[in-house]
Write a structure and sequence with these properties.
The chain is α+β, with helices and mostly antiparallel strands and 625 residues long. The chain folds into four domains: 25-236, Alpha Horseshoe (Serine Threonine Protein Phosphatase 5, Tetratricopeptide repeat); 269-350, Serine Threonine Protein Phosphatase 5, Tetratricopeptide repeat, CATH 1.25.40; 366-505, Serine Threonine Protein Phosphatase 5, Tetratricopeptide repeat, CATH 1.25.40; 515-624, L,D-transpeptidase catalytic domain-like, CATH 2.40.440. The chain is 45% helix and 7% strand. It is built from 33 helices and eight strands. It has an eight-stranded mixed β-sheet. β5 (576-579) and β6 form a beta hairpin. The longest helix has 19 residues, at 3-21. Residues 1-21 form the signal peptide.
């Protein structure tokens, strides 16, 4: 090939490439529309959608006309396309930036319309494109309650996964679970709970979801609903709690189920419920309550025991019942003889005069009482005389667990001295009485909703560093986490901003500090001081810019990573030092001389490495305004 031919070919290729690069899709669409005599306007787009003319609609969108034009009824092109089943046009509108949150005058959104039309693919496309999962259906109902009421599980799941509020209520004021219950949609209950529907919300007449489910006789849902947050003690519209109804109807199975999930008689007193049943001479109700663990020694307002009342009233049936459930008949033997009621005396004697053992929380031990009173001397004396250090106390847990949550460090040490395992697991069923003595809300939540809570976690929540140090010295494992939420002891201390406890868990003295770091947000500098207050190192920094303010307060360095990549911003963060198990800390980065970060504290490259080398886990960091 001659050089002249090669030049001609190259020029031709260059012209073709230039022509392609200069193409303007918008201009081409406008030319085509002009050829067809179509006005380039939002009104034309609306007309094309109304006519189902996909080709013209695509050209108008390519020409970038306004896609929010409304018809006489207030419907946008996207509403019309969905309503009339023009999927191709709807997809073009979505791809070209149509308003996905647009509502009609009656509150219908593209998503709510798509759901009402049963358009699964369209709903998925809208939600994937960022459309809000809300709005009213054409018949005026909120879209999520509508989907629940009509049994549209796929739409329910997709809407909630797309961010629909699980706490919302329908137009009548009924939460989502109540909507499903009243509609008889039992098949949706488990899915709604898994998707985060609010089990604690009450309906328009202030009934719990548990009450509503039991009205449908869905008693197997009692446990899951209460576990998810439904209050088992809220009354129904007639003022009766589920447990009262079960007791009055002699439904032992349901009563046991309710009691197991935390139901209590109206007023909260099991003893009052027993006395009420006795006063009515309801033997079956008394037997049911006693079988649930109510103490037969429950005294009334005059200090009288049920057994004493049964003897005085000459009710052998109740006398026998109370004795069978462990009432102490020995103090009444003389009274039975004095009244010349030989059959009463014989009955008491037949029971050996020995009360039967009752389950917690009615049993207590002297050691448990000493722990509650904080009497370490008596506790030590009891242990020396043979008190079992592992026998559960009234709260249903071991003496070690009770001593930890009540901050009885000396008693904890006494128990550990006698060989109690510092990793003794808690009883799987945590009683309300034990939860009441736990200090922090985080730990109470974990005890109710998680497993593998350990003694060192109890200590981390209690704030008593002496207890934590004693446990660690005895071999408590701090590198464990709860099974479901993967909470470490260090996380619990961090949640409470307890720097001293975090230091203990990281192997440091809670009081004696080798160094501390002061971060001054105003001066944009950080300074390390030694234990005597002398400055060891100072560096310029860059903290959180507007909208990403760096938190102030006192923190501890809980993690150090020579190399780290941000899980939030996918950015390299060398020499990262995390504060109090949080999402910010020191790291190497650009320091322009003013706040510029997303909340972390940037340190110049050389200084970041030196700062990393000078600090240790557990060091206190004070961030000042």
């Amino acid at each position: 090939m001659s050089s002249r031919s090669a030049i001609r070919i190259a020029a031709t290729v260059l012209l073709a490439v230039s022509a392609t690069a200069c193409r303007n899709p918008q201009r081409e669409a406008m030319r085509e529309l002009e050829k067809r005599g179509v006005e380039v306007s939002g009104a034309s787009l609306l007309a094309a959608v109304q006519d189902g003319n996909t080709d013209v609609a695509r050209l108008l969108l390519q020409a970038q006309v306004y896609s929010g034009q409304r018809d006489a009824t207030g419907h946008s092109p996207l509403h019309l396309a969905i309503d009339r089943g023009f999927s191709a046009i709807a997809w073009e509108l979505i791809e070209n930036g149509a308003d996905l949150a647009a509502t009609t005058p009656s509150g219908v959104t593209p998503v709510s319309l798509s759901v009402a039309k049963g358009e699964t693919a369209m709903t998925d496309r809208l939600l994937d494109a960022g459309a809000p999962p809300e709005g009213l259906t054409p018949d005026g109902d909120k879209v999520l309650p509508w989907a629940i009421r009509n049994g549209r599980l796929a739409f329910v799941r997709r809407l909630m996964e797309g961010g629909a509020d699980p706490h919302q209520k329908d137009a009548a004021g009924n939460p989502l679970l109540h909507v499903a219950i009243e509609a008889g949609r039992r098949d949706l209950m488990a899915e709604l709970l898994a998707l985060g529907a609010d089990a604690a919300a009450v309906n328009a007449v202030h009934e719990s979801s548990l009450v509503a489910a039991l009205r449908k006789d869905w008693r197997d849902l009692a446990g899951p609903l209460v576990k998810a947050g439904s209050d088992p003690n809220l009354p129904d519209r007639s003022g009766r709690t589920p447990l009262e109804t079960a007791i009055d109807s002699r439904d032992l199975g349901l009563a046991k189920t309710l009691a197991a999930v935390g139901a209590r008689p109206l007023g909260g007193s099991w003893g009052d419920a027993l006395w009420k049943a006795y006063d009515r001479r309801e033997l079956d109700a008394c037997r049911l309550l006693l079988s649930l663990g109510v103490s037969p020694e429950s005294r009334n307002t005059r200090g009288r025991r049920p057994l004493e009342a049964a003897l005085a009233d000459d009710r052998v049936d109740f006398l026998h019942l109370f004795l069978c459930y462990g009432a102490d008949g020995r103090p009444l033997y003389y009274e039975a003889c004095r009244r010349k009621r030989d059959y009463h005396a014989a009955l008491i004697a037949a029971h050996g005069g020995q009360p039967r053992t009752l389950p917690a929380p009615f049993l207590d031990t002297p050691l448990g009482l000493a722990i509650r009173e904080g009497d370490s001397r008596t506790a030590a004396r009891l242990l020396d005389r043979g008190a079992r250090p592992d026998q559960p106390v009234a709260e249903g847990q071991s003496p070690l667990h009770l001593a930890i949550v009540l901050q009885r460090a000396r008693i904890v040490k006494e128990l550990l001295k006698r060989g109690i395992d510092p990793n003794t697991p808690l009883s799987s069923k945590v009683s309300d009485s034990f939860l009441q003595v736990v200090r922090g809300g985080t730990l109470r939540w974990l005890l109710k909703n998680d497993t593998n809570v350990t003694p060192i976690m109890l200590a981390a929540d209690s704030g008593c560093t002496d207890t934590a140090r004693a446990l660690l010295a005895a071999g408590a494992r701090s590198s464990v986490w709860t099974k479901r939420n993967r909470m470490w002891p260090l996380n619990i201390a961090a949640r409470k901003s307890d720097v001293k406890m975090m230091r203990v868990l990281l192997g440091k003295d809670p009081v004696v500090e080798q160094r501390r770091i002061i971060v001054d947000l105003s001066d944009q500098c950080a300074v390390i001081y030694d234990s005597s207050g002398l400055e060891l190192f100072k560096t310029s920094i860059s903290t959180g810019r507007k909208g990403y303010a760096t938190p102030t307060g006192t923190f501890a360095i809980t993690n150090k990573y020579r190399t780290w990549t941000s899980t939030l911003y996918d950015a390299s963060m060398p020499c990262f030092q995390r504060f109090s198990c949080g999402d910010f800390g020191f790291h190497q980065g650009n320091v322009p001389g003013y706040p510029a970060s997303h909340g972390c504290i940037r340190v110049p490259a050389g200084n970041a490495q030196k700062l990393f080398a000078l600090t240790e886990l557990g060091d206190r960091v004070e961030i000042q305004p």
